[in-house]
Amino acid sequence: MTVLAQRPPLLRPVMSPSREPLFASVFLGGFECSCQRLADGRRLDLVAATRHDELVDRDYARLRQVGIAACREGASWVAHERAGRYDFRRVARMLRAARRHAIDVVWDLMHFGWPDGEDPFGPRFPARFGRYAAAFARFLAGETEAPPMIAPVNEISFLAWAGGDVRSMNPFEAARGVELKVQLVRATIEAIEAIRAVLPAARFVQPEPVVRIVRSDSRPRTWARVESDNLLQYQTWDMLTGRVWPALGGRLDYLDIVGVNFYPDNQFTLDGDTVPLGDPRHSPFSELLLEVARRYLRPMIVSETGAEGDVRAPWLRYVTEECARAMARGCELHGVTLYPIVDHPGWVDDRRCENGLWSYADAAGRREADPALAAELARCAPILERARADVLLRR
């Protein structure tokens, strides 16, 4: 166990523990919905690029056929606002298809992108996002009485680093990562307040990557830097709760459900070299889950996990085994999201990313399932269902 894991909890539970799972199924499907502008000026719309907007009804039927009753879905600020006017026709089709197939949805409002002309560093950015969130809440209130589950901003930490420090994503800045993180946290708070004013029972997921930076035994002068960088992964959640930078307005109840995103390259050295699964320096995923669980005392989901090609099925087996271990030790984990659930074009080079349970759709709208991943999903689901039932029974 690491030094980080031995620290006492930093928060107290906000809500009474529940023995009811957050989702009807332990697995969720994540539909890729990134919508940022690339360095060459192109605007991504991966909901359209995967034809999910066109095939949503059949995609949800596919989820039910493999026992998945929940998903992460895009309700993109970019797609639904034009100069202060809101058009939710695309998300309405998704919502109605979800009702037909009894799919619980976690709605992402900002998945790496914002409307053209909006300055993410500008003073009006958080408030404008809050107005969009309020409009979305009013739309939901007119469509359903079920309390929604919403992820206001996906991966604030990653976006702040990639877009604000190393120029690899929009807004392609350097040395402004903290400034961008502060703006995204303020935007999240504005969104939560706006949505709660319309839908007081709404639940909120805060998805962030969990990482482990591995120190080098031959470079002891870097150990303090490594510890600091490992702790930075918690900064967004700590800002939301008001534990750090309380002037941002953080409060304990802004951190409702903790989402952890974990991929095969989430453990690395200070130089950026991946520490792969099987390397003796690789920390078990269960340890990372337990560190977050003990730090925040919140219900949790794995909000993204997956791998490409032939690694897909072995990776799911590993994640399932580690999640079950964490739950056996008290981690209140409610679900695991296969992300993405359908293959998609690459963000930068349009390469064919074969990382989903289902392939690109053919001309008739059919998607082929990856047989190895489908078989592994069927094997893993009852394992996690039992582990989830056991941990909730002990709450």
Describe the structure.
This protein has a single domain (4-393), classed as Glycosidases (TIM Barrel, Alpha-Beta Barrel), CATH 3.20.20.80. It has helices at residues 46-49, 52-65, 77-80, 89-101, 125-143, 156-164, 177-198, 223-232, 235-241, 285-296, 312-328, 371-393; strands spanning 27-30, 70-74, 81-82, 85-86, 104-110, 149-153, 203-209, 212-214, 257-262, 267-269, 300-305, 333-338, 344-345, 352-353. The chain has 12 helices and 14 strands. It is globular, with a radius of gyration of 20 Å. The two termini are 24 Å apart. The strands form 4 sheets. It has an 8-stranded parallel beta barrel, surrounded by 6 helices. A two-stranded antiparallel ribbon has the order 3-4. With 395 residues, it is an alpha/beta fold. Helices cover 39% and strands 15% of the residues. Helix 5 links the parallel strand 5 (104-110) and strand 6 (149-153).
Keywords:
14 strands; TIM Barrel; two-stranded antiparallel sheet; alpha/beta; 12 helices; disordered N terminus; 395 residues
Question: What does this entry show, briefly?
Answer:
The chain has twelve helices and 14 strands. The chain is an alpha/beta fold.
Break the fold down into its secondary structure elements and pairings.
Layout: E1 27-30, H1 46-49, H2 52-65, E2 70-74, H3 77-80, E3 81-82, E4 85-86, H4 89-101, E5 104-110, H5 125-143, E6 149-153, H6 156-164, H7 177-198, E7 203-209, E8 212-214, H8 223-232, H9 235-241, E9 257-262, E10 267-269, H10 285-296, E11 300-305, H11 312-328, E12 333-338, E13 344-345, E14 352-353, H12 371-393
Parallel strand pairs: 1-2, 1-12, 2-5, 5-6, 6-7, 7-9, 8-10, 9-11, 11-12
Antiparallel strand pairs: 3-4, 13-14
